[in-house]
Amino acid sequence: MKLNEILGIKYPLIQGGMANIATGEFAAAVSNAGGLGLIGAAGMTPEALRENIHIAKEKTGEKFGVNLMLMNPQVEEMAQIVVEEGIKYLTTGAGNPGKYMQKWKEAGIFVMPVVASVALARLMEKAGADAVIAEGTESGGHIGELTTMALVPQVVDAVNIPVIAAGGIADGRQLAAAYCLGAAGAQVGTCLLVSEECPVHKAYKEAVVKAKDIDTIVTGRIAGTPVRILKNKMAREYVKKEKAGADLMELEQYTLGSLRRAVVQGDVQTGSVMAGQVAGQLTEIRSVAQILEKLHNGSLEVMKKLGED
Ligand code: TUI
Questions:
Q1: Measured in angstroms, how far is the CA atom of residue 276 from the centroid of ligand 1?
Q2: Is 224 exposed, middle or buried (0-12, 13-18, 19+ CB in 10 A)?
Q3: 206 Cβ partners below 8 Å, 6+ apart?
Q4: Ligand 1 center to residue 114 CA distance, Å?
Q5: Which protein residue has the closest C-alpha to ligand 1 atom 17?
Q6: Of the residues 20, 238, 260, 272, which has the fewest C-beta atoms closer than 10 A?
């Protein structure tokens, strides 16, 4: 069964968590356009999360959810807020949400943890997850090791719940490929960054539009939190410091606030411009509705052509 049927939405597409970017208003825009919009709680305080949930409720009558980043120091409180606010759809990232699963299931929440390995996918299925998002290393932001091409079919073979593919999906060919790998749908982030509705700074969008295929780099591998960002002054200096053996505290100081600097101030040189490897194929800024429609229709065209061969 396709993800749109499972979730009762127009397209089999859900939005990535997009830390510091995916506000309540943006999540509502994605949901209004036929995808499942999610409020990215990664860079938020619990109060800001509540406020953004209220905004999303006001701006859309469609289904929407919340993405919880498990490394957020206030995630415990946020895990409770989603229950209190009656959130129906939840994705998690950057960790194992096992200890919250029972509470979320009792609240009737449809839980979709992001996994970067077969082992965590299996664990999540046992813990009661309704679906898993198998996210490949092509993605922007915090990533795992395996590619989407290698990870998705292995997760599909290991679990009996729907698998949503993520990482490296920005057009119909890649979405059709995800279906070929056994996915029920896809999570997309980078292609939504360059939407008219995305509240990220204009300079951030322009940097993504200008990026070529080889313009992303992974920082933080040595520190144990690999993060894919666009190559810039900040990325080069970070990797240099990392190679020179800078301690974790120093590196953390260096990255502190860097995502906000890019997202809010549009400082794409010393800020952290998180984006996936598909940045090179994104060349224009369109509405969320156009992006989702083209992605979906494009996949149908590709599959039709394949059937004719
Ligand atoms: O979480 C993401 N992407 C993100 S979070 C984020 S905010 C941030 N900023 C700076 C440093 C770190 C985070 C930006 N982008 N995607 C989901 C994702 N989850 N990718 C990889 C994983 C993952 C990796 C290992 C999930 C679980 C895991 O293992 C957990 C375990 O304990 O077994």
A1: 14
A2: exposed
A3: 268
A4: 8
A5: 93
A6: 260
> Which residue puts its alpha carbon closest to atom 14 of ligand 1?
141
Q: Tokens 């970067």 sit at which residue?
A: 116
Global pTM reads 0.97
φ/ψ of 134, rounded to 5, equals: -90, 105
Q: Please list every protein residue whose CB sits less than 6 Å from any atom of ligand 1.
A: 19, 42, 69, 71, 93-96, 114, 116, 120, 135, 141-144, 225, 227, 274
Strand 185-188 to strand 64-69: parallel, antiparallel, or no bridges (unpaired)?
unpaired
- For residue 276, pLDDT beyond 90: yes
Alpha helices in 133-257 (DSSP H): 148-158, 172-180, 190-193, 202-210, 233-243, 248-255
User: Nearest residue CA, atom 15 of ligand 1?
Assistant: 141
The count of residues in the chain is 309
Give 135's DSSP letter: E
Residue ID of nearest Cα to ligand 1 atom 22? 94
**In terms of Cα–Cα distance, which of 19, 38, 14, 92 is closest to 263?**
19
pLDDT in tens, 18-49: 999 999 999 999 999 999 999 999 999 999 99
